[in-house]
């Protein structure tokens, strides 16, 4: 069996194990009293978590959002005729509403005319390669980006390949944390604890979530290759690590539903969940085991709205924007020899 097929088999096994354990929990006659009823968890556990604040549309028409059933949490605004289209690495989706509001305050001509997406940057690249067309559920639409935002290393890479236009614009940095349920049922206190048998993990997928590379590096710093292999190989094989597609959405959901005991995310995501009031907490990772991301952006080659893209790229590094980022634990980027990693 080829390595690719082995990997696919392991992922399928882990996913099936996770689904079956979830189904078993929901079918528990004690939990459900033997009756058909709506879930016991609060509806606001499910995205969208900001009650429509991340929608820039001024005319919203008929409101139809059913958490867990019908919701497009990472697609924002009115696709009809936007004046600026942004592809943003999903790990600061929660900062986009105040960022857009502040930008529109400075440039009112864009009010209600900005559309943005916040899925992982690797998936956004796939959408760019598909001409800006994407399908979610039964809906397909096209939104070609004017600017793309990810880790500085990736931005530089895509400028060199001709997908993006120079210059790269770095603006903030971020570090890793261990996201846990507020009551910390697994008693997770460090990265080393993630390798313990019985600790269920939700971890970003290395295939398209760049954060996975930083996580593996941090695991190696904390416990060597043995710890990294335990989390990303052994536990995937036995079903106690599930790989996410969109870790900034899935990890907190799995934790709040009792489906996982921990997951490594960017610290900003844990801070947002705590600020929202969700039953989420986090465990700090020591600096000597942590990894730092540099966030950057650039205009997309052939952008339909190049002047709008330049305005946003100027704004994203402004004191106003940096103050918004700092609410969630980001730090302003000041250059220097800081390690250069992907941001998602």
Automatic annotation (TrEMBL):
Pfam families: SBP_bac_11 (PF13531). It comes from the Bacteria. Keywords: Signal. InterPro entries: ModA/WtpA (IPR050682). Residues 1-27 form the signal peptide. SUPFAM superfamilies: Periplasmic binding protein-like II (SSF53850). GO terms for molecular function: molybdate ion binding. One of its GO terms (biological process) is molybdate ion transport. This is Sulfate-binding protein.
